Amino acid sequence: MHILILGGAGMLGRKLAQRLAKDGHLGGKIISRLTLHDVVMPKPPDAAGFPVACHESDFSLPGEAETLVATRPDVIFHLAAIVSGEAETDFEKGYRINLDGTRQLYEAVRKIGEGYCPRLIFTSSIAVFGAPFPEAIGDEFFNTPLTSYGTQKTIGELLLSDYTRKGFFDGVGLRLPTICVRPGLPNKAASGFFSNICREPLAGQEAVLPVSEDVRHWHASPRAAVGFLLHAATMDSAMIGARRAITLPGLSCTVGEQIAALRKVGGDQVVARIRHAPDATIQRIVAGWPQNFDAKRAVSLGFKAESTFEEILRVHIEDELGGVIAA
Amino acid sequence: MHILILGGAGMLGRKLAQRLAKDGHLGGKIISRLTLHDVVMPKPPDAAGFPVACHESDFSLPGEAETLVATRPDVIFHLAAIVSGEAETDFEKGYRINLDGTRQLYEAVRKIGEGYCPRLIFTSSIAVFGAPFPEAIGDEFFNTPLTSYGTQKTIGELLLSDYTRKGFFDGVGLRLPTICVRPGLPNKAASGFFSNICREPLAGQEAVLPVSEDVRHWHASPRAAVGFLLHAATMDSAMIGARRAITLPGLSCTVGEQIAALRKVGGDQVVARIRHAPDATIQRIVAGWPQNFDAKRAVSLGFKAESTFEEILRVHIEDELGGVIAA
Question: What is the CATH number of domain B192-218+251-293+300-320?
């Protein structure tokens, strides 16, 4: 089995590649080859028992997508995207990568023809939804994105369903929750604080909380996200039906509940590293975000996420900190 | 006021142009100029009291959209599209015209900049919805198209909202009911029979009914459709909010109810010209179409349609047949 990951240098792409290297198989089939692609050179995972090819290019350029799929990978993970903040400030770049790039990938697969029909997993986002929201967003809530990023992801989902319906590939769209605790350095993304207030204190650093503790949001761990991707690649896709984009399960909790879990896991001295510094701009942005979902469909399709924030923290401590919390 | 109509040679484009010529003004402003464009040369409306320029080209070709908007029309009616049947059989052509063409038009407007922000009316379709449906589709039902045409129209709506949000134009998306009774010759739309079984018998010709009489569908007359377009061009668009695509009002009735109205209006000899010839392919396509809507939002925004099928037939007899039914 040959697997292609677009966005292979990103946080999720690296974790997915590492998991594939560890497992050596996917859905009961031996992995014979892995191709990683990104706009910056991806690093191959450690100790893979199969050949790994790494490529660096802009996949929205003419011919790039064709080159990537010419070897006919059996499974394509399309994780490549311009993130929400940048897609909002750089309108043309957002559309070029998130819409044109995605469409060119789909087209490249379609044009191979000859019965080639890979499983194609597209990571979408809860940004396909726009306020006002119900208390919990159900599987049939409509897509009215309020950002260019959300618009681009919604279009990617629509094309995914149409190309799948036409038999050009076997598409699965995944609307990921916010990934928390995100490893790496703090960033300036408006959603960054959800992870920062856990990651930094657990590592002995101070973190800034720019919103009030009653802000509610929708989370899943990086480990759960890799699980979503693997399940999407191996599940019986006939069960999905015509509506190929799936709102994934996650955990809805408030910042206050995050902090309570952090106290339980790390004690008062960890929580004391959170500095409250309200930021009106971030408060306003976050107020327009989804807070809770009722992801019945995904659960019935076998997707699994954490059920407590404590569990999310323990995953982080295990996977990123070698089990050690900074004193 | 300068008005541009894309799809100006189509049924709706011609009727709209004729109405503009008759009125001489739009929303209280004198029309100073009308530009008609289509892939076949449009004919200018009769007796227009303003200059009418007619252009023939493929607006999806590079540079065409830029040329069309270079004169900065105040109102753009974008009615140009590959119809559902053809978009389904010719995948590439459907995407090239309905997606790329639409996007290039939006891009051409955006790239002018300099505060240019025309009212842009985009005709969408109830094909943005896909079965299974509730008894009546409400304003917040989700878009899960089951055709390439419906996918393309949904994408056109999403882009319309995003470009409007960004201030590049002032977009209004109109999800037209099926236009009935459609004058002229049958086109490639699978929905053609809804009109054929009225138009041909009223003109003394035989028509084929390929579905059973219990098929329910959603209709508005060409006259109502022109009314929708004019209202969309002149209404206070601030009332629409962020969700720029509007499901328009229409009349929900069965083919049997259509025939009963036809009998009332034209008598048994007219109805006898309908030949029942079930077509499994059309039956299957139509089974996936919406049957009824609850278009509260459009009604509250001032859009109006017919309330009986008899009324729709009388509009046709008045507007197309000079009041005369074939004996």
Answer: 3.90.25.10
